[in-house]
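Quick question: who can interpret this fold?

. . .
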Amino acid sequence: MDIYLPIANLSVNALVIILLGGAVGMLSGMFGVGGGFLTTPLLIFYGIPPTVAAASASTQVTGASVSGVFAHMKRGGVDFQMGAVLVVGGMFGTAAGAAIFEILEALGQIDTVINILYVVMLGSIGGLMAKESLGSVLAVRAGKPRPAAKRRHHPLVASLPMRWRFYRSGLYISPLAPLILGFVTGIMTMLLGVGGGFIMVPAMLYLLGMGAQVVVGTSLFQILFVTMASTMMHSLTTKAVDIVLAVFLLIGSVTGAQIGARLAQRMRPDYLRLLLAAIVLLVALRMALGLGWRPDEIYTVQAL
């Protein structure tokens, strides 16, 4: 069944879009990430213009984050004070990202920049994840479990002035640290259509020193509001949000997340992280090859 995407200005198979959303949702349920960092590249591979893919993916991430936030709220897994600071930073980052997006679009370089950023970002994160998870797997197989890392914020964070107490997270740090983190995530959300959870969660753990019990819920709380702001900003400025595409992606992701959550209960965490690292590296490799391959048609003409 083919459907017409009015903003992308092309026809696609609805079942393929639903299956793509289901695959990303399954990964979200298995690994605890929003999945936006894979949605945009997969849409680009399918032929969706990068600008539309990035703008529409943020809409899907918004919908997928709602249920996660409520689930963590019920068990007290959200630090609302920390989340509010992250959201404020994310709002400013979204505005900055919108300005950068418009400048790159005016220069005709937005598609190339999106692809390059994904290659660098996914390649570096995938490499770090692979190194850590592979080390854990080898240590367990050798009968020498790796000791748990001590929770402590980064020295740079400790040096920042004007400290606040974040009681739920058990921290006494400057609000400037989460404010800057939220700002960077807001820019990424606007440019790449990602929620930023796959960077936000490690940063909150290893840079801010937050407790693991509140990291995921607080990250989803920030992602929910920032992706909402990003979607509205895209709708008002770039006008690249394709709601038809977002709806079909969301249908698939909701179902896939339930399946992924069940599969995750049957697999060991170390192997789950290693599998996610492999998937991220494969996507980065495919995007890198796409930047170097000569396309079948060098020039394309699209009516706006």
